[in-house]
Amino acid sequence: MIATWFKRIAFTLVGVALVVMAGLGAGSMFGFSPFGVKQTDRSQPALLKSIQDVSEYHAAVGNFEVLLDTEDDVSWIPDFIAGRRTLFVAAGSVDAYVDLSGLGDEDLMLSQDGKSATVRLPEPQLDKPSLDLDRSYVYEQNRGVLDRIADAISTPQQEQFYSLAATKLASAAEESELKQRAAENTEGMLTGLFGSLGIDVTFLDDASK
After folding, report:
1. Cα–Cα distance, 171 to 173 (Å, whole number)
2. What is the pLDDT of residues 189-199, one digit of tens each?
3. Are residues 103 and 179 in the same domain?
4. How many independent structural domains does the chain possess?
5. Residue 36 lies in a domain
6. Pair 116, 201: CB distance under 8 Å
7. Residue 2 belongs to domain spanning
8. Number of H helices, E strands in the chain
9. Residue 44 included in any domain
10. Are residues 81 and 19 located together in one domain of the fold?
């Protein structure tokens, strides 16, 4: 009698489990949950850890895009079995800034009558590239059979593409006119600032130092 009772309970539990699993499967298939799943957000509020004073004038931003073409070959194995070639579109931006904190007395000279000034600005610097993850993606990828199986088991990592893209964007920024544009914009900003005070400003380059 007891054994029969336990069997009935076991069959009942199995039946309930099958119904639950079927309900969850149907919900996933048709985009709804029959059990009304509710998510509760118990996250803590963001805390301000520190504030840093900024003395850098960000004078220009360069927007870049690069198509990465990488290929991984496995020695002595045909490409259709192992190996992959990936085309990855990477987009991002690079800031050019002028650090005004290093200006000394010799870099900023005001005339005795206070109507003119000479300024020697430091050379513009480039910030680290900032990748736009929403605009960076795998455009095309050819994979061998073994690589397809590996990707089905574990999610492929894209950190290597982000790292390579950052390097490419940094090089492109160095070769561009971004620094020159930042210098011109900084001079324009200071010209307007001094002009509002009735002061004519002249900018000196490093050769005149």
Report:
1. 5
2. 999 999 999 99
3. yes
4. 2
5. no
6. yes
7. 1-30
8. 4, 8
9. no
10. no
